[in-house]
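Look over this entry.
=====
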Amino acid sequence: MIIKQLFNQIYMKTICLLLSSLLLMSCNVTHNKKHTQNFKKDFKFDAYCSCLLEGYGNKNLTSQMTLIDKSFYSPVINSVLYDELREIGIEEAKIMKKDSIKSITIASEALTGKKIQLHCLNFYNSKKLDSITKVNYRKWKNIKNIDSIINAKNPGF
């Protein structure tokens, strides 16, 4: 009788431990799926925002924009891929500057200068950004402990 009770206790503890482990693993998978579900759309939008902010190239202006409009910052993607996104914006700003200089020689005075909104909108819809997004999506899917990285860079998120 005692052996049977002891066996039942051990059996129940083992089952509880297994169920708890399964529950924890399934929560983790679901949480990671949540982060990857909208990745492509979110990454492209963040790249668009980076294009705008770097394109304006005015710290006072961009500081005001980010204070007023919170869509310029995505805590999830920016926590992990901030450097990549900033580099995208910097590269697009260089292209805008070259286009602006080129426009001086080929367009009327009224049409010369940077066309930041138009450039960034075209970039958002480009195959170039689609391919950059694919590369970063592969990186994103392979990141281990993504939740801990996000939480470390955004306490209280």
In short: The CA atoms of residues 53 and 59 lie 9 Å apart. The chain is about 80% helix and 0% strand. The two ends are 52 Å apart (CA to CA). Confidence is low (pLDDT under 50) at residues 16-31.
